[in-house]
Amino acid sequence: MSDPNLLFWAISFAVFASVAGLTFWSGSLIAQRGAVRQRLAPAARENRDFAADQARSGPKIGGKRARVDAALGLTDATKGVQRAELLRAGYFGPNAVLAYNTIRLANVIAFPLVVYALLSTTGSDLGALGKFAVLGGSLLLAYYIPEAFIKRRQRALQEKFRLVFPDFLDLLVVCVDAGLSLDAALERVTGEVTHTSRELGVNLAMMAGETRAGRGIIDALHSLASRLGIDEARSLAMLLQQSVELGTDIAMALRTYSDEMREKRLSRAEEKANALPVKIVFPLGVFIFPVILVLIMVPMALRVVGAMAGF
Predict the structure, then answer these.
(1) Residue among 110, 203, 107 nearest 149 (CA)
(2) CB-based contacts of 253: which residues, under 8 Å, 6+ apart?
(3) Reported pTM
(4) CA–CA separation, 153 vs 48, rounded Å?
(5) For 227-237, what is each residue's pLDDT tens digit?
């Protein structure tokens, strides 16, 4: 116990355990202040009902949930913002916010401990300051890894939504041309879209639930656009809002917009195809050209060596 290295690592472990808790707590406070400043944002407004429903789910469950939220430093505003972000990432479960914060806290504690164990068992040549820096970097990395994962998941879903959205519009045009109202057409299309994209189907089902609860179809479309996070959905909501307010033909507006979305999807595919020759230069130069060069030059080099040996 009098070994200075053992004493140093014991103190480092205690310090980093304290810093992990303080970092998570301070991050929650910063997120809370940012959420309060943006409380009028649509994402925060549309998710307040969810927190209220969870609070009314029962006194026993609600009491446990309140104690867990207090331990994690969560408020209604913070949970509303996190709920919106998780919805955009495709996590629709009622306990998604709690699970996300629990995993984040566990990651902040476990990841530095794993790094500490690796440094202790491998016998690293880093000095005390170097090890302290590595542990500090692992703590910061562990704190931001879940957020980076959610952002990456959002970008992947947005790309998927952009691919499926023109097909959704085509189905919507067919239903409107068949004589269905806009509400009925959206509900009819939801089941078909679910087979292609589960996430888009769930978002459409949520929009249908909002309209059945009494929310206007235009407000529900704006809420859908906020959850999807793509410009195509926002443009659709604005287009239908203008058509309803001005009294224009919705079927004609949808047909024109559907043609535009199909052309836009084709242009994105052509753009990716045109960028392929540039992207393939690196693997060609690193993996293929050296092999071809060896196959060509080695026989010539052997012949030259053989000829030189003959002299």
Answers:
(1) 107
(2) 239, 240, 243
(3) 0.65
(4) 23
(5) 898 888 898 89
